[in-house]
Amino acid sequence: MANAAHAQDSNSYYVPHDSTWPITGSVALFTLMLGAISYLNDWAGGWSFIPGAILMAFMFFGWFGTVIGESQRGVYNVQVDHSFRMGMMWFIFSEVMFFAAFFGALFYARTLSVPWLSGQGVKVFTNLVLWPQYEATWPTNGPAHVGGRADSSFDVIPAFSLPAINTAILLTSGLTITVAHHALRAGKRGTLTVFLALTFILGFTFVGLQAKEYGEAYRELGLRLSTGIYGSTFFMLTGFHGLHVTIGAIMLLVIWLRVLRGHFTPDRHFAFEAVAWYWHFVDVVWLGLFIFVYWL
Amino acid sequence: MAEHSVAAAHDHDHKPHGWRRWVYATNHKDIGTMYLVFACLMFFIGGAMAMVIRAELFKPGMQLVDPQLFNSMTTMHALIMIFGAVMPAWTGLANWMIPMQVGAPEMALPRLINFSFWILPFAFTLLLATLFVPGGAPAGGWTMYPPLVLQNGASFPMLIFAVHMMGASSILGAINVVVTILNMRAPGMTLLRMPLFVWTWLITAYLLIAVMPVLAGAVTMLLTDHFFGTTFFTAAGGGDPVMFQHIFWFFGHPEVYILILPAFGIVSEIIPTFSRKPLFGYEAMVYATASIAFLSFIVWAHHMFVVGMPLAAQLFFMLSTMLIAIPTGVKVFNWTATMWKGSLSFEPPMLFALAFLFLFTIGGFSGLMLAIVPADYQYQDTYFVVAHFHYVLVPGAIFGIMAGVYYWLPKWVGNMYHMGLAKWHFWLSAIFVNVLFFPQHFLGLAGMPRRIPDYAVQFTDWNMVSSIGGFGFGLSQLLFPILIYMCVKSGKPVKVNKAWEGAHGLEWELPSPAPYHSWQTPPSDAIIAKGAFH
User: Fold this and answer.
1) Are the beta carbons of B130 and B155 closer than 8 angstroms?
2) B107: in domain
3) Cα–Cα distance for residue pair A233/A142, rounded to 1 Å
């Protein structure tokens, strides 16, 4: 009944048909959570993540595949396109707030809890009674010197080494995806293909370098997840960011494959723009990380 | 598949049949119904836990449950009522009503809303399963403060992941609401023509998207502190357990407005209908709601005055909290002014809305008392706090939901419910809720601490009164599902569009029961203008 011409008619609404994918997603999420719980409670080994992970991958392939297929058949009208755009923007806003919680923890630790532990401000007694010798510094692994090397020491990664290179990589990738977007709008498919490929290659390079940095931190610097509040905030912030870069790079790869198949027109390319917004979002988060975690 | 993806204009109530209709649903009414049924189920499960609490507290000494289970009951009761009953009930009402009220056929992202619903049964399976694992259900309070929460046994990761799933569900549901309101309004339905239920839900959805991820971050830090050696909330490593409380309440305070703002919207629809007058101060209501939402982000630390904060911070949070009384006062006075010289009638939705107006205001006043720092030093963790938040949540949020259901039920099923029975439900609820919670103010002011299964003998009398009120309130709620069942099965058909003669708004321009896809073509500007508040 629906066809492209009809769907573009602004006087009618588009209502999608029933779908098996949402319930698949719920079951997949539940399975993944059960796996994680079983692992953490020592009820099962690491394999317990596998069923949930497979189901999640199946759901993502299936759901996105269905939506891409419908989009290619011209089922969606302009209103649906707007809904998708707004949905993506608000989703990114929720992601920003997720990172805000961890940035909040970082700022709280640096400006309040660490100075208080050293006896500044109103909370003098923790210092007097428990750790009278502790002085506030940053970075720190706390008054009890939690984690780190055998002697509880640890070193941090200097900002102007690998992190600076990673900053350059991500900023460049922000540039390349913008070039790709302009090429898409101008109908230059060759430029689009090349610059989009450059973008996800830069993205995966970033992830690779970040993994190398983690390896060095763990082996040589004594900087681990368990290295006090510095290790906690460092690895949770950069770790969640790295996870988002990985997801973003996979998304870039997917839209690149779609470009190779001839998807997207100069006027209609919601998926491309959604991925581009997401990519700029991980870029901006990284700038925050570079400044507040590595540099200052 | 394209042949099924019909443009709604060509679709006449084509419904899938059997279980597939519900599990694969993309219809806003079917999904709304599932949300409401789920919320009702959780309301009774959470209510049963409250009965256990009140039975144990009927007299001093230990009689029914051991202290661990008692604390599990208070913790689970809160989590289930907040995340399982009230929030899904609001989302269910939003799914049912927002497309009808803004002139749309469906929600903007129908598959997403299906996903967000079907996460919930799994999340609560996980949460309820904690009752049966080694170490028992979470017992450290719904606020999950470390280090106490970290002492939970096998239930700990189940709690964390259940909260993650509820959060994901809320965020997706809220995104859908925002997008529907901003993108699916009929041409001519300008923002300041929207019904207040839509307005309050728009602001609620914004709050949800802003703060649920913060809760996710907070519980993730708990998880890594417990299992992966981070020290966010351990002073030895440079962290601070109080930091959790700050992050949690940055979520938690907007959360309490998430629970109440849609009730403001519903009451703002019902009072004009049964006063046969337009709402007094429509725009002021919108701005007041937005102000409350803004203020909700800068008051969080009033939940933790006794934890130790710099004096300046305590003063700031005290004063900002008191500011909330101003927009809330605007609302209460506007509702009152709406009734002034109106032609009032007292059908069940109006009764619940009026009880809301009086009893929520009591809860608001006790909130003001709690905002005063030196006074709060006395009230903190007493039954006064319990009385306060139950006054805003039960005759506030729950009565708001009941009012909404009694208001729109005839539109949903096309039948009128048994008016007499509904009034019985109202009067029993309204009387018992006060018998239940009002004495808790006295208990709290006299010093009875919350979350303790035993108490000193001088608290016995009021605890007995409170428990009798609790049992009465719990039993009288059984009328509610019976009444709805009777309405669906054998209610008298409502043959007109307007089930209530004074009702305004687009939903009353649709037939009763409303068609499967609400507005298959956008309503005309004239119809929209007729239904608008002003």
Assistant:
1) yes
2) yes
3) 13
CB B193 within 8 A of CB B527: no
- Pick from B117, B113, B99: which is nearest to B8 by CA? B99
- Do B532 and B193 contact (CB within 8 A), yes or no? yes
CATH fold of the domain at A1-76: Helix Hairpins (1.10.287)
By C-alpha distance, which of B33, B14, B217 is closest to B113? B33
Shortest CA gap B436–chain A (Å): 38
Residue B171: its chain A contacts at CB < 8 A? 91, 94
For residue B508, is it within any domain? yes
Please tell me the predicted confidence (pLDDT) of residue B534: 54
CB contact under 8 A, B126 and A226: no
Q: How far is CA B380 from CA B367, B368, B377, B385, in A?
A: 12, 13, 6, 7
| Mean confidence (pLDDT) of chain B | 94
The answer to whether B29 and B412 have CB atoms below 8 angstroms apart is yes
Instruction: Compute φ and ψ for B382, nearest 5 degrees.
Output: -110, 175
Picking from A232, A234, A238, A281 by the largest number of B CB atoms within 10 A of its own CB, the best residue to mutate is A232
* CA distances, B13 to each of A79, B6, B29, B266, B517 (Å): 22, 12, 12, 28, 7
CB A229 within 8 A of CB A142: yes
**Strand ranges for chain A from DSSP E:** none
> B425: Cβ–Cβ under 8 A, 6 or more apart, which residues?
B348, B402, B476, B477, B479, B480, B483
Total structural domains within chain B: 1
Could you read off the pLDDT of B204-248 as tens digits, one per residue?
999 999 999 999 999 999 999 999 999 999 999 999 999 999 999
Question: B272: which 2 tokens?
Answer: 């004009």
Give CA–CA dist B154/A240, Å, rounded: 25
Site from A6, A9, A23 to mutate, B interface, most B CB atoms within 10 angstroms: A23
Secondary structure string (H, E, C) spanning A222-240 = CCCCCCHHHHHHHHHHHHH
Q: Do A144 and B20 touch (CB under 8 A)?
A: no
Q: Evaluate whether B148 touches A55 at the Cβ level (below 8 Å).
A: no
Q: How would DSSP label each residue in B185-206?
A: PPTT--GGGS-HHHHHHHHHHH
**pLDDT tens-digit profile of B304-315?**
999 988 899 999
Residue (of A51, A47, A45) closest to A30 by Cα position: A51
Q: What is the per-residue pLDDT for A140? A: 95
The reply to whether B74 falls in a domain is yes
Under a CB-based contact definition with an 8 Å cutoff, are residues B183 and A86 in contact? yes
Q: Which residues contact B182 (CB under 8 A, 6 or more apart)?
A: A86, B202
Cα separation, B360 vs B340, in Å, equals 19
What's the confidence (pLDDT) of residue B14? 63
The CATH superfamily of A78-295 is Cytochrome c oxidase, subunit III, four-helix bundle (1.20.120.80)
Domain that holds residue B506: 25-531
The CATH number that applies at residue B201 is 1.20.210.10
| Contact (Cβ atoms closer than 8 angstroms) between residue B453 and residue B63 | no
Residue A142 to residue B231, Cβ atoms within 8 A: yes
Q: Do A9 and B237 touch (CB under 8 A)?
A: no
For chain A, domain boundaries: 1-76, 78-295
Is the pLDDT confidence value at B10 over 90?
no
CA–CA min distance A237, chain B (Å): 11
A116 contact residues in B (CB cutoff 8 A): 240
